[in-house]
Amino acid sequence: MIFHLGYELPKPVSTKLDHESPDLTDEEVTILKRQITQNARVISQYVERLDLFLNKEKVPSEEKFVRRLRRRLEVLMEENDTFREVLWKHFQKIDFLKSRSDEL
Question: Do 48 and 82 touch, CB atoms closer than 8 A?
Fold first, then answer.
């Protein structure tokens, strides 16, 4: 028989999504983290393409496809910032609640 401390036990995995709850579920946090990672990868690719076209190929910055790339990059960056902000607020709320429970 093996004894475990409470913090050593694995958390039960929940795939529940609750849009009415003000708190994020574990699955929602996982989705946000995955989306942030995927967006960061795509953003990196767009930056590399823009660098290639503008700095190495000397394509004028007014070209239609360059403007389109920049616009997509802006949208991805705004989306990523929003996801990070939501995740950051969630972690701050968790830390605040933990500190309040430790005081009691």
Answer: no
Q: CA–CA separation, 44 vs 48, rounded Å?
A: 6
The pLDDT assigned to 12 comes to 67
For residue 100, what are its two tokens?
A: 């309040």
Q: What residues have CB less than 8 Å from 27, skipping those under 6 apart?
A: 14, 15, 16, 17
pTM above 0.90, yes or no: no
Residue 28: how many other CB atoms lie within 10 Å = 19
Query: What single DSSP character describes residue 8?
Result: G
Question: Nearest-CA neighbor of 52 among 67, 73, 66?
Answer: 66
